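anyone seen this seq b4? input:
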Amino acid sequence: MKPPKKIRLNRTEKNLQLLFDDAEYTLPAEYLRVHSPSAEVRGHGAGEPLLVSGKMHVGIESVETAGRYALKIVFDDGHDSGIYTWEYLRELGENYAANWDAYLQRLQQAGKGRDPDESPVKFIG
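predicted toks r here
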């Protein structure tokens, strides 16, 4: 797969903009972080990926090419082990709405949230 024609890291807006020949995507840092292709998130087997919560404020420190096929994204929470292939980045862009909705549903079902400073409180009465 051909690499994007343009890759722009916007630290202020906390996103990564990718311009392919036929499509353009703006992917938020939080979205990229919780969908990291790393073993930490994907796990080592074929099961459901681990649920990463509390990444609402995560940013991207740097982006480096990994050969001619991918990007290595370094997040400001120290996570840097995922290699995002051009194909995976395109897939993340094309499926952003569905992926994000599914992620939010998983968070809700697990009683977790996006904000690391908030924790769910259960009232027992």
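The longest helix spans residues 96-110. Strands lie at 6-10, 15-19, 24-28, 60-66, 70-75, 83-85. kinda curious what u guys think
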